[in-house]
Sequence to fold (102 residues):
Amino acid sequence: MAQLVVLYHNPEDSSAFDAHYASVHIPLAKSIPGLRDYQISDGPARTPDGQSPYHLIATLTFDSVDAIKAGLSSKEGGAAVADLGNFATGGATVLMFDTRSV
Fold:
């Protein structure tokens, strides 16, 4: 399995971010080919010491990093990536990696 993790930095307007994310971005991301599971943080993202610079964390599961790359290269993936500029005013950090159980 592989994960695509998106760390959404705190936006200028969290209410506008949340509304757009729920009504527009989630449906776009859920249409990405090869997506196996899609989870988001529920409530504020925190560190053990308190607040963090992240408003929301999304974890998308695929079969492999190659499947992530193929999904993001698709028409649906391109639409989801292009949508980031419409709501992620604080920016986002995107990570992708294969996983293994230990």
About this structure: The chain has one domain: 2-41+66-98. The beta strands are 2-9, 37-40, 46-47, 50-51, 54-62, 92-98. The longest strand covers residues 54-62. Helices lie at 14-30, 65-73, 75-83.
